[in-house]
Amino acid sequence: MKKEVKKVVLAYSGGLDTSIILKWLQDEYNCEVVTFTADIGQGEEVEPAREKALKLGIKPENIFIEDLREEFVRDYVFPMFRANAIYEGEYLLGTSIARPLIAKRQIEIAKLTGADAVSHGATGKGNDQVRFELGYLALNPDITIIAPWREWDLNSREKLLKFAEAHGIPIEKHGKKSPYSMDANLLHISYEGGILEDPMNEPEEDMWRWTVSPENAPDKPEYITITYKNGDPVALNGKELTPAQMLTELNEYGKKHGIGRLDIVENRYVGMKSRGCYETPGGTIMLKAHRAIESITLDREEAHLKDELMPRYAKLIYNGFWFSPEREMLQAAIDKTQENVNGDVRLKLYKGNVIVVGRQSPNTLFNSEFCTFEEDSVYNQKDAEGFIRLNALRFIIEGHARKK
Amino acid sequence: MKKEVKKVVLAYSGGLDTSIILKWLQDEYNCEVVTFTADIGQGEEVEPAREKALKLGIKPENIFIEDLREEFVRDYVFPMFRANAIYEGEYLLGTSIARPLIAKRQIEIAKLTGADAVSHGATGKGNDQVRFELGYLALNPDITIIAPWREWDLNSREKLLKFAEAHGIPIEKHGKKSPYSMDANLLHISYEGGILEDPMNEPEEDMWRWTVSPENAPDKPEYITITYKNGDPVALNGKELTPAQMLTELNEYGKKHGIGRLDIVENRYVGMKSRGCYETPGGTIMLKAHRAIESITLDREEAHLKDELMPRYAKLIYNGFWFSPEREMLQAAIDKTQENVNGDVRLKLYKGNVIVVGRQSPNTLFNSEFCTFEEDSVYNQKDAEGFIRLNALRFIIEGHARKK
Amino acid sequence: MKKEVKKVVLAYSGGLDTSIILKWLQDEYNCEVVTFTADIGQGEEVEPAREKALKLGIKPENIFIEDLREEFVRDYVFPMFRANAIYEGEYLLGTSIARPLIAKRQIEIAKLTGADAVSHGATGKGNDQVRFELGYLALNPDITIIAPWREWDLNSREKLLKFAEAHGIPIEKHGKKSPYSMDANLLHISYEGGILEDPMNEPEEDMWRWTVSPENAPDKPEYITITYKNGDPVALNGKELTPAQMLTELNEYGKKHGIGRLDIVENRYVGMKSRGCYETPGGTIMLKAHRAIESITLDREEAHLKDELMPRYAKLIYNGFWFSPEREMLQAAIDKTQENVNGDVRLKLYKGNVIVVGRQSPNTLFNSEFCTFEEDSVYNQKDAEGFIRLNALRFIIEGHARKK
Amino acid sequence: MKKEVKKVVLAYSGGLDTSIILKWLQDEYNCEVVTFTADIGQGEEVEPAREKALKLGIKPENIFIEDLREEFVRDYVFPMFRANAIYEGEYLLGTSIARPLIAKRQIEIAKLTGADAVSHGATGKGNDQVRFELGYLALNPDITIIAPWREWDLNSREKLLKFAEAHGIPIEKHGKKSPYSMDANLLHISYEGGILEDPMNEPEEDMWRWTVSPENAPDKPEYITITYKNGDPVALNGKELTPAQMLTELNEYGKKHGIGRLDIVENRYVGMKSRGCYETPGGTIMLKAHRAIESITLDREEAHLKDELMPRYAKLIYNGFWFSPEREMLQAAIDKTQENVNGDVRLKLYKGNVIVVGRQSPNTLFNSEFCTFEEDSVYNQKDAEGFIRLNALRFIIEGHARKK
């Protein structure tokens, strides 16, 4: 039973797949299509999407092309890094964090253009469909969602190409097609499929597109200093940068030094395990640096509570629950801790390694006087006995009870 | 008010500090001293401690020298690594995990020798005093504890040396004394003090005793394969190894390839922040490998629950609560998950990097068929719509309620 | 696209709805039907289901009628009560905990009879469909599931009655039909629908079927004593009882004294809120008693950890994840703590109140000597100063840092 | 080694014990004493403390008597009830929540009067010393703390009376001295000691001072309606009330109907178990009502997250960490959820029972249409199949893997 749709906002990359979707939407739903193409740092020109959309019959006023890089880093990437978020101990959530922003802009554009539906190009077995659609529904519960990959029968490369040909969609040929399914934004690039489908296969060197290998990175280390304000990086080597500039520059350092490659098997929200390779050069540096500045500025127990809440926070983002009350609740807790997270972190970058070599802060809670074995102004060594005795009291009582 | 003590079991390294303690115990408490010296892989001969103890008047039958390396790795290190334990996002708990074993053997030897007290050489501002003493009291609530560093007034290097001289304790001179306070066992070596007291100072290269620097590590990567059984590593490159052999061998690989250096500011249980540098070569490899084998053999939700419980588990160990009901409770949960954690992990070691390049298991839950965008035997893409709709239902209802 | 089914095991109550399902399965799927009717303490005869099934054409060897009360209480209710499980602060999970057992037996009977499918009578908007089906699939991933309420178009009372009439299914008339949707087992009875659909309506007194109202309960309190062994109740007023006997007897006490009524709005797993009223007389007594015996036998930190894990454990059961690795992992942790949970709890029952008035245990950790303000054998009041100072040390350091 | 003190602010009740402390401070420390007496609803006149203090030689300008009831309820009790805080499943934290406020005012008065020390009358084995002193040090890291009960040797009733006599401190005789150690404020009254020291002893009826027994409560139920705004109660039966007025009125209802008695064995922070009896009449009503209004206004997952964080939040308050970064972090998360917690709860009070009989809200998320088994506007029953299948996918995959 087909849904009735008047106008649909499509997340449109300009590539073959979303061009096919565009056409398919026009045909299947007989509706007006609005295209939305965002620059979130994927490293490809977005402007060409306009020409393509026009050629496919989209009205000029229905073509939206936007540079969202600053918003992406400021309102999505940075808040997430305040939490030191890592999924399953390894993954920096590069794809996950970009979807909510796309979803949000689609819903806004739907409102702007009076569209009653949105559509995306995510497949039916992945996480991204969930992330897009949870975002859509959280922001507009009445929006109609069209997920072509779950509806159509174009579920093979051949059928897609045949459809493209039949509808005059240009199939660009740039040498050989990559064997990998990829996704990129300012935070990362990902790879799936191809030989990765056997988790015993090591990725081929030429798969990696952003970073040099550690082997090919410079033989000389490089030092950088990141300055933090309220938990966010604001200056690099003393130069103030906007959020997107910061991530862009850190990416350059990371790419150069072979930093941020990752090869994992992860658990998808829809239920299966999947192999993924990732490059997150700047993010890998930021995570290390943020932990370092927190290490001298956060209270111990708030740091530990952050660590305990983090896996759940990361899971929410991975699963697509960015626009949920529970994510906002956790964010409120996390942000509450970042007021004093100010200062500098000095890092050494070398062949895949990000090594913290210094940290300082106007709000530092570190004082070497308190650590040495000598007496100091705040610590009476005799106190340790009472501290230990009372912490052990339950053991003492239990020991006696058990003996009886 | 001095405690009455007849016989005390001292954790005795044979070094200057614990020799001074030995003498001081004899003088101050006028009691018999039993020395206990353990080989837990610290990399120093333990047998010389016998001669030293004899010279200080300890009776032969009161000298205990034991090789605890296998017990250490099997019953302490491995269970901890099953949990992927990391303190404050960075520290592999090398010192923390060794203390409970020492404490346990001291209590056992106290029972064996009829001693009514135990003593250790940990200072009054550190974590180790807590770890030793919580262990003692958990295992024998009636034991008397003597913590010389909190009692005596020998709280400077000069006073200690003067005491040693006055009592004929030999002060060995091996070139210049290290400026760092160090601790070592089969899992790690640690450094505190000296120039580290300023957290903006990068450690000097010659501080590190175990690993070569990444810069000086071989230019050629090396591949190894670790085999897991029930969550523990049991074979290396196909060769079966005992727990201590395994960690010893992995340490060699790590040291050679510049793996496992760490430089952090951490929060002590007694309340202050302290700078520490650590080398955990084999442990760093094991952590990465264990996560990799878990990635294909653990159920998603048990993996996530492990991740959420981990910071608390690591904190318990750091704080000295190994012998606590709550640690055992968490261990029961963790161990319950490891039954299927079997298989091989292939790793590439290169200049500080531990790179997972393959994993396989007879119990693997990974199946590439389920990940691709094509139909498969267990996954109906149409199911995703229902999955998403019902996960979003609360947002839909809340969206409507909020609009009103 | 209808699934091919040869033989299906139906959870059959003998009532109108599941009789209609029985017939519908025969017609729609043209398959053999096996009926499974369990006595889990719902308070109705199960034997009459045999006659009804025979009349509907079920072969005698395909009729399974079983008394599962002991298994239900021993292997499901008691383990859950060891955790003090409560969903959303109020609900004792009476329905949730019975579903996995039914599911398990259906799968076992399917194996026994060579059936390839199972079916249940739970509706398409409730939690029970999830609980049944997650259970089925956890125990047999290949089983075919038929959920008639989601498939057929008999979605109104009239259509059902018409179907019944058309197929000769007897419609018993016992006075007027209850306006409530109900479920019962040895642990509880539940009510939904009718006037409850307005959460401002107070339930009518005649809705409640098990308990008298507190107003109508005896004016004289009654005292009982429950004896615990390893966290489970084993004797009542000194008389040893099997698990099902225990719950049956406690139910009698609860019913008599107006104990265990509950009226809540809860969150269903499928996404909406729903109003439910419950009577859990014996369970309400057990929860209070179990907490009381734990209060003198559990270590503080294991008790606290149990409390922190409980909401998650309860949610797993509510959502239908009884047969999941994560529930088993939590159960392992919980059960680890119950070894010393032995002793007696004395309770006063009076007009809806369950009042703990005494508890004692051979393993008690309570000792009045340790609580008074006088000196005792294990506690030195001077220790408190050190305990407080070191717990406050981070505040002291932070206070100084902030002042600067 | 006695601390040097010029001026000390004493938490002064005007009773015998703190009068002895007052005198003892003057004698032992030879310092000026400032008395601080607060009305936090303990139910005793505070003004008489002025006369007593004057008689003991306190200068008029050093006597502070303040009514803190509104601040107490608004800034301490209400925020805590937003979290539904309960310690160890039972205790409503009546004593714990009052200590931070006293500590805060003492520190403020110390600043005002130029005092360099504070003192309290809490004993050396209880929780209150910790709560006071953590509060002091969190608010002024340099304050000197005098805890007479840990310092002096007046550790028996006889010694105290002898001291009082010797120093002309009037010992009022109001009939026989209560055998219980008590504490009261607007939220609760507590009892310890006496026959309670045997946890098998039922409290005597005449111990309870606030509430009638359920047996003696009215035979007729009474209905009340509480109106919530942003998670706090703001009106009772339609009448707007200030926070302290609200709690006062609810206390009256509770006392009349025998509501809020509690008899438990709890775990003290300093390590031992202790028996306590409590009356929290208004608080018991508020807890039930708050959960009820949340049940129709909170999103499911934020409600669940609150439930999971609650035990830790309650523990922080119990242990004295009100003024800690981690409590504030949790409070930020909790408060974030309360924006929509608005509406009315109707309750029936009867002989110890608080029964929720209705709840309504302008922000309600409950809609009966979504619960019934019929189709509705937001829920497609077919969606349930996909929802269940994908939630079960990991079981399906694991089932297959295990079979192999």
UniProtKB/TrEMBL annotation, chains A, B, C, D:
GO terms for biological process: argininosuccinate metabolic process; L-arginine biosynthetic process; urea cycle. Residues 180-395 form the Arginosuccinate synthase C-terminal domain. L-aspartate binds at T123, N127, D128. ATP binds at A11, Y12, S13, G14, G15, L16, D17, T18, S19, A38, G121. It catalyses: L-citrulline + L-aspartate + ATP = 2-(N(omega)-L-arginino)succinate + AMP + diphosphate + H(+). Residues 7-170 form the Arginosuccinate synthase-like N-terminal domain. This is Argininosuccinate synthase.
